[in-house]
Amino acid sequence: MTGDKIGVFFYDDKRGTKAIIEEIAQVSPTGIVTLKSGIRYTSQGREIGALGDPTYLCTVEKAQAVIEKAAQRQQQNEEEYKAYLASPESRRDKAAALAVQAAIKVLNQYGWYTDIDGHMDAMESEIEQIIKKYLSEHEPIN
User: Any bridge partners for residue 23, and if so which?
Assistant: First the structure.
């Protein structure tokens, strides 16, 4: 058993999906499994001394399936992000953010430096909403 590969399952829920494949360093006579990373597991496969959510031992096949699922989810997220970047909404958001930065920069140049009681942040948000509304109503002709 020492030197064999084993799966370590973290989670598969709304947070995402995570598992890794580790190597077994030692198995005690009572069934406690110690991995090369030094993490120990009970004979039932539950992590010993976990501070947060405990991890669990699983088969290499299950870990591989979870890893592949995570890779697919990441690829899907990247594709959605690329589609967003190419969308008119992304262009509007970027234009609005740059316009707000320019407006605040000009105000700072003429002496309005401080943000008393969050008024500057509120104003930035209002300016951004006004610009986004204008841009959504007046799409450029390409």
Answer: 5
pLDDT at 133 over 60: yes
Q: Does the global pTM surpass 0.85?
A: no
Helix axis angle, 88-109 relative to 119-137, nearest 10°?
140
Tokens 């077994």 found at: 24
Q: What is the pLDDT of residues 62-112, one digit of tens each?
A: 999 999 999 999 999 999 988 888 888 888 888 999 999 998 888 888 887
Beta-carbon contacts of residue 69 (< 8 Å; ≥ 6 apart): 12, 17
Report how far residue 83's alpha carbon sits from residue 7's, in angstroms, rounded to the nearest whole number. 34
Q: Which of the 8 DSSP states describes residue 44?
A: T
Contact indicator for 115, 121 with CB cutoff of 8 Å: yes
* Exposed e or buried b per residue across 111-134, where buried means at least 16 C-beta atoms within 10 angstroms of its C-beta: eeeeeeeeebeebbeeebeebbee
> CA 84, CA 32: separation in Å to the nearest integer?
48
